[in-house]
């Protein structure tokens, strides 16, 4: 057999035509979302005022195993997909490991990350429903950028509430979204009731993700023909992101490979859930038994130190309650540079799989993460996003263990995006001023004490 | 025949194993470089103190048609190459043109541009010669970034003199280079004689490219085992960049296509010379007759309003004299946002071809360029570098003419890089504060009055 190439791109014919819904192969589903108004399980109708109809249905659909990707979505996917599966020959050599390291690189588009995979789907369904526009929030800016691109493509107006401190600190991210035609508003703002209330209390606040979510939801439900969209955590998002794993699995089959271990970073779970989907399917159906590893920051350790409980998805406590690994919606993550992983909760679907023992999790400190990021950049020419570098760290650690043991394992990890907009973090690492933040047990106890009470379910 | 895919990637087997030296097919060579010390044509030995030996030889080699790409260079190319040839279906649809538009996208690596193709070759030959390190200068930062990556890969120390005003304005570019291990020094600096002299005269100067070149060259020739490298203008650079055109031509052959017109932006000529190489070969050898178009900023119109004359390559007037289209080495380009195109001269090889009528040139204004860049981004999801957007503008204009005439021409252009580090420019365009700068005839007359006198050659 000839040598495995550095990068493999599927042909357009080989690209998946359907998303894969992992829930169809789970023996047991995660506990249902709870409507905070009624404290009863949320019905699909409860979701219609906020989400567009097809997406609300996808959110609750545990039956349909394969979902056709609409042709219009496939057409836009083809502009930047397939993304390459890359054999990290140089990294292997630099680590002097017998392990084979593969990574799926999702940073190959202007949005710079995998977020575009779901943004396109969500914008398409909104357009199809005849909606007039969308609202969302963004923190670090990856999701806002991706959705701006998708909305530009489908000609759909978009309002992005961007956390004010990011809005001021990251003018370039804002400029990218504006270039794609989005309206970007610093949150809190005077465009919503909740924003005005917060500004009245504290005119100088830098805002928060929770506040931005509240504003985006309020704007959507009070604007004729608008809906709100979210870039992670939700089942619908993991469904769309399954394109990552499906492409990867096909590419590995072509190469005659199968991973012994699949590694992904985990914030809300959108990338991890997408990458692992078909491999977890093999595991749940007994076809194969790869190890599956979530990597999270030690500063925001939802899986490894959180509690499996019902909690709000946002700081503002206006969203449905979800059963998930959580640090408490009042948890204030440290100023870790991986903005995309600074989230108190976790995808309910992945939480269930972790709780049932189908996957592992590991927490890593950010100086170790940037050490890995820099090493990787020098050897593979891709400067990774801080979020993605969590997976690199874990993959390198696995490869170094293989060096010790002499095992030639096949390691697969997800490289979700590039770090072009994260150079402040790299500078901090280069200058030796980066610190590690690890919450104390007392910190976590305090933030977990804010978990909501639900009569008969969570007292 | 099945539909042409959105993007075509060659397989590793299909990738070129040799660079193509266009000079071997030119009926007449460009006039030789002149050593400013002796005012005689430069010999290869004259170049050895500054350039490493193999590169000095490549610089003067007009005979060897195909040059083997060293295996180590091919290995590093494979990390990020082949780059895709993309059919711009969405742009075509948005323009409602019968033209077929293809672009070769070179922004698919962390350096963000085509510059890496030559940086790898230059770093490799330096390593092979046993050199201890390299120096270079960078303005906007694309070349400095690319060379930092290449030197990191080959384990070669690198000192980059970065124009002080850019050093302060673009901390992220600096951080990328530092992450790859380069020493980045704001120029003028106290590390060189020439730098100290300039600082003595004007301690608050923001520096200039000419000053940075002078410092980099001084540092190289005064440091044991160091050499200086340059990212454009030179014949050796165009040779390495021929990989762009060779890959493109192979990909078009696979698709059964051939361009009616080939379009590239032109600063020093590194991308344009690389992209057009095999198509110009066809033209020079009578195999085909594509139109070949250089696109330059109206603010720095070397081809369209410059003079074909001997001139210095740098403001400091320490480099050899080259016969080229020039605006005069004293020309101070306006604050146009396409930093990579703000150069007073042009590749001598391309200058000769233009002078002989083998190619055309067009100058475009920057507001029109950013209009095209934004339109392209919305339709193709790639946010282009301002330099690359010059080619987009010209390609769109060509496609719009096809719409008028009903001709289904095949248009090919080079998309040299991404605009992630140019958001200040996009913001200026989005906010409507961007201006166009066009030098007056008097401006050009004055800067051209500084052309050097060469006894018997240029009086």
Label this structure with key terms:
2 domains, alpha/beta, 42% helix, 459 residues, Rossmann fold, 4-stranded parallel sheet, homodimer, globular, 18 helices, 7-stranded mixed sheet
Task: Provide the fold topology.
The structure is a homodimer of 459-residue chains.
Chain A: E1 7-8, E2 18-20, E3 34-35, E4 40-41, H1 44-47, H2 53-60, E5 66-68, H3 71-80, E6 85-87, H4 89-95, E7 100-105, H5 116-128, E8 133-138, H6 142-154, E9 158-163, H7 164-169, H8 171-179, E10 183-187, H9 193-201, H10 209-222, E11 226-228, H11 235-255, E12 261-265, H12 270-284, E13 291-297, H13 302-305, E14 307-312, E15 321-326, H14 348-355, E16 360-364, H15 366-380, H16 386-405, E17 410-415, H17 423-430, H18 441-448
Parallel strand pairs in A: 7-17, 8-9, 8-11, 9-10, 12-13, 12-17, 13-16
Antiparallel strand pairs in A: 1-6, 2-5, 3-4, 6-7, 14-15
Helix pairs in contact in A: 2-11, 3-5, 5-6, 6-8, 9-10, 11-12, 15-16
């Amino acid at each position: 057999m000839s040598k495995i190439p550095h990068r493999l791109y599927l042909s357009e014919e080989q690209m998946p035509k359907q998303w894969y819904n992992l829930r169809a192969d789970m023996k047991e589903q995660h506990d249902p979302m709870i409507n905070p108004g009624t404290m009863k399980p949320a019905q699909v109708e409860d979701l219609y005022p906020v989400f567009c109809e097809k997406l609300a249905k996808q959110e609750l659909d545990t039956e349909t195993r394969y979902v056709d990707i609409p042709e219009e979505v496939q057409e836009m996917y083809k502009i930047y997909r397939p993304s390459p599966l890359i054999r990290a020959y140089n990294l292997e050599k630099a680590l002097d490991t017998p392990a084979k390291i593969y990574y799926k690189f999702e940073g190959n588009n202007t949005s710079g990350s995998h977020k575009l995979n779901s943004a396109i789907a969500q914008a398409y369904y909104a357009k199809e429903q005849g909606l007039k526009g969308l609202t969302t929030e963004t923190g670090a800016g990856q999701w806002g950028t991706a959705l701006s691109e998708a909305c530009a493509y489908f000609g759909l107006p978009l309002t992005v509430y961007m956390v004010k401190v990011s809005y001021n600190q990251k003018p370039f991210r804002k400029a990218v979204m504006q270039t794609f035609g989005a309206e970007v508003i610093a949150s809190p703002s005077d465009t919503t009731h909740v924003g005005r209330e917060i500004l009245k209390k504290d005119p100088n606040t830098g805002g928060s993700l929770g506040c931005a979510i509240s504003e985006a939801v309020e704007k959507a439900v009070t604007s004729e023909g608008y809906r709100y969209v979210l870039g992670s955590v939700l089942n619908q998002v993991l469904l769309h992101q399954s394109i990552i794993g499906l492409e990867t699995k096909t590419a590995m089959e072509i190469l005659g490979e199968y991973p012994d271990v699949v590694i992904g970073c985990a914030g809300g779970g959108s990338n991890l859930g997408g990458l692992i989907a078909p491999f977890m399917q093999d595991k749940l159906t007994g076809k194969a038994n790869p190890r599956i590893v979530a990597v999270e920051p030690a500063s925001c350790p939802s899986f490894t130190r959180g509690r499996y409980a019902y909690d709000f998805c946002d700081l503002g406590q206006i969203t449905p309650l979800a059963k998930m690994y959580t640090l408490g919606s009042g948890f204030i993550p440290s100023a870790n540079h991986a903005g995309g992983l600074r989230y108190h909760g976790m995808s309910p679907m992945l939480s269930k799989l972790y709780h049932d023992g189908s996957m592992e999790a590991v927490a890593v400190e950010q100086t170790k993460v940037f050490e890995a990021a820099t090493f990787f950049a020098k050897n593979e020419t891709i400067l990774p996003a801080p979020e993605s570098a969590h997976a690199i760290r874990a993959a390198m650690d696995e490869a170094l263990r293989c060096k010790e043991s002499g095992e030639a394992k096949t390691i697969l990890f997800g490289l979700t995006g590039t770090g072009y907009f994260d150079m402040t973090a790299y500078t901090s690492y280069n200058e030796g001023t980066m610190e590690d933040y690890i919450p104390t047990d007392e910190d976590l106890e305090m933030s977990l004490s804010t978990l909501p009470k639900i009569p008969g379910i969570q007292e």
